């Protein structure tokens, strides 16, 4: 058996090492694919890495993030979205809120790209809660919120978010980009002076010539346009410099904007040139499949073209507008469907995981219950053994004490009741007392001796106990005092254990003896009653009552006897109102 375990461990070690080496090989291949910009291969290798790492039970948060990133670069944003969501959940499980916040930012960007701005805002706000100003990426989240606000034409709100992005960024290039975005929103608000002021500050810095060409050309273009809208003199060269840069870097989106600005530039000066740039804008927008820009270009053409062409342009615009709305809904629905399916699968996965955990907990619970029961049984057995020996020793001690008490009581009784009488008779004999008187004295001594013997004789138990108990009552019954019982025949007292029968007998005997000595009662009533599994016995006489101090030892003896069988007893006595004792015990 030991050899099999060793072989199994050795085989497991080999398998794990093989999988680790295989993972390293795949990671290297992926690295090479990324360097060669082979995104399809990078995606394939990352999927294989996830499978192997899952078998090794390694963290998958980073791998899902990489897979989402490669899908995003490969223009498969719906697949990127799903893998970013998986990465976010993995980071949350690991308690890594910082990286979870970073992934949420990527998710917010995709939602914004699909024009689900309200959802993107919600995701971005959640990202901010995770990041808590702890990371430089927070500025990108503010930028995303600014873009969302801008797209919803909430330009003042957009400026608010860009101000936060500017406040927290330490990157001067990013600061220039966010300032450019902020200035652009002032253009939308027609606050051209503020826009010009911001653009001027950007172009005046020593960093301006080091800005990425795309950002630099955008700043130049928008700066010139803001001045144009304010009515200031603008040199054509300002637009052409921006255009040259955009042509050089093939920034077609930027060129479309530049052509629109030049169309505005010539709108009053030269309508023909304005129309020419409007057509350039239109043709490039169609070429790049920019529907919104195409609509904007058509709007310009409708204003600038001759009347006989306006109708045709308007029809094109109408058809394109319908197709844009349809395409937008289709695009949004695509991501909404991805979100719905992912959430549905997530819920199913959570339910399955919950069921699995519940099953495991149930198994553990059953195991724990078995262990508890086994422990309880062991404890019970040990306790029973300990209790058995304790009870046995206690009974031995109680018997010794009982014997001692009985001997003491008998000795006292013999001394008090017999010794004096015997001594008196002996004295009378020496004095030659009358024989008849001596015989009477001896008869009295004999009667006392017989009573002492009877009081301490063995108790008859078992099926004859009821009869034996009635005999006790009869012995104390006389013309002076009537001893009555009630309910004795209805409680099946013969079925009690031997120990309980003896206790009942001795307690009632002690009560009757005390009654005869101290109470001067003319009537005694002993009532027996059974309720469920308990037996209730009540002793009551109409005597003068008893001072408890006089019979203290007797009361203690009765209490000890009753407690020895698990019962309780209480005593009540008032001067001239009789004596009562009530005790109960389980059948």
From TrEMBL:
<dbReference type="InterPro" id="IPR019734">
    <property type="entry name" value="TPR_rpt"/>
</dbReference>
<dbReference type="InterPro" id="IPR050482">
    <property type="entry name" value="Sensor_HK_TwoCompSys"/>
</dbReference>
<protein>
    <recommendedName>
        <fullName>histidine kinase</fullName>
        <ecNumber>2.7.13.3</ecNumber>
    </recommendedName>
</protein>
<keyword id="KW-0808">Transferase</keyword>
<keyword id="KW-1133">Transmembrane helix</keyword>
<keyword id="KW-0418">Kinase</keyword>
<feature type="domain" description="Histidine kinase/HSP90-like ATPase">
    <location>
        <begin position="501"/>
        <end position="586"/>
    </location>
</feature>
<keyword id="KW-0902">Two-component regulatory system</keyword>
<dbReference type="Pfam" id="PF02518">
    <property type="entry name" value="HATPase_c"/>
</dbReference>
<keyword id="KW-0812">Transmembrane</keyword>
<keyword id="KW-0472">Membrane</keyword>
<dbReference type="InterPro" id="IPR011990">
    <property type="entry name" value="TPR-like_helical_dom_sf"/>
</dbReference>
<dbReference type="GO" id="GO:0000160">
    <property type="term" value="P:phosphorelay signal transduction system"/>
</dbReference>
<dbReference type="InterPro" id="IPR003594">
    <property type="entry name" value="HATPase_dom"/>
</dbReference>
<dbReference type="InterPro" id="IPR036890">
    <property type="entry name" value="HATPase_C_sf"/>
</dbReference>
<feature type="transmembrane region" description="Helical">
    <location>
        <begin position="372"/>
        <end position="390"/>
    </location>
</feature>
<dbReference type="GO" id="GO:0004673">
    <property type="term" value="F:protein histidine kinase activity"/>
</dbReference>
